[in-house]
Write a structure and sequence with these properties.
Blueprint: H1 2-17, E1 22-24, E2 27-28, E3 30-36, E4 39-45, H2 62-92, H3 103-109, E5 116-120, E6 129-134, E7 146-153, E8 166-168, E9 174-176, E10 182-188, E11 195-208, H4 214-217, E12 230-235, E13 240-247, E14 279-282, E15 320-327, E16 331-337, E17 344-355
Parallel strand pairs: 13-14
Antiparallel strand pairs: 1-2, 3-4, 5-6, 6-7, 7-17, 8-9, 10-16, 11-15, 11-17, 12-13, 12-16
The chain binds calcium ion (CA) (2 copies).
Amino acid sequence: MRAVALLLLLTVCCCQTQSKAVLEKGECYNPLLTANGGTLHFKVQGIAGEKGDPGEPGEVDIGELKAEIEGHISTLIRTELAAQNIIKCQNTHLGTLSAASSCKEIYSNDSTCRSGYYWLQGEGESGAHMMYCEMEESLCGSGGGWTQVASLNTSKGNYRCPYPLTKISDPGNFCKRTSATGCDSTTFNTYNISYSEVCGRVQGYQFGALDAFKGWKVHSRGLDEVYLDGFSFTHGSPRQHIWSLAVAISSTRNPGHSTCPCRVESVLHQRPEYVGDNYHCDSGNLETTWENIFYEKLLFDGTGCPSDSLCCDSPLLPWFHRQMNVTSDDIEFRVCMDETAESEDIYIQLLDLYIR
Ligand SMILES: [Ca+2]
Ligand SMILES: [Ca+2]
């Protein structure tokens, strides 16, 4: 008994020097020794820990958490439904054998079909093409069913400029004209899809002193020539005008041959008859004077017009919407300027073109 007590005392002693008594499995305990009726009893007790701070009573706002979880679930369900919807709609028009004639046909048959890529084959076209259908209500007026024929956004990573436009990275990522003077022409294929509406936009930035419809006003140029500084959409041969986007020397300069025809006092006589009302005109330059500099105002954004100007009045800006006779012609897009890039240029950032 004495030996056991001594051994325990020794263990306690040794363990205490380490603040712990090692008894088994590498664990440390404080042994308590008690005597009861001549029998020795051990009681092993763990080291009491530091009493922790109970802390402030917690608050759980499960409302916020619930809303977040419900949001995630709702997004998942919507994504799944959209995926199922597009697969259902796409399966109706699979490959050459059952391709639709246009996005409009798909939308007319089932207006719940979502935006996405569908197999389309216009009349007389030898094969089907995967084309993007915009089915949302918001594009150029009521209803969906728009077939995309061109799309460019130079602010989104990799992009290719429609030939023959040139890709530039200074003063930013843009597409610009390649020709020294005149028009760069590119043709967007409609793949024989028939249409009677065109919805599109071109946006970018002005460099230097552009002259809106001066090519027509001063030089009497026709639709095939450099009748404007800006963009021209046409179809067919001979060319038929769809829409013009003219860029002027200044939005506040007094009306003259390089300004927009949508200034009220000059609205009746300053744009070509083959253009009519089917144009937008804007300037990136808000001053009355001009310089050969890059103007930072985005063109055709519907801002910056003086009070006597109608140029910002179209509610569709930057979009244009043209209704016309049914055709399936490809659409020609021209970027025209009659002076060199040292004195006039446009840096294109956005281009979208849809038919219906
Ligand atoms: Ca000029
Ligand atoms: Ca010019």
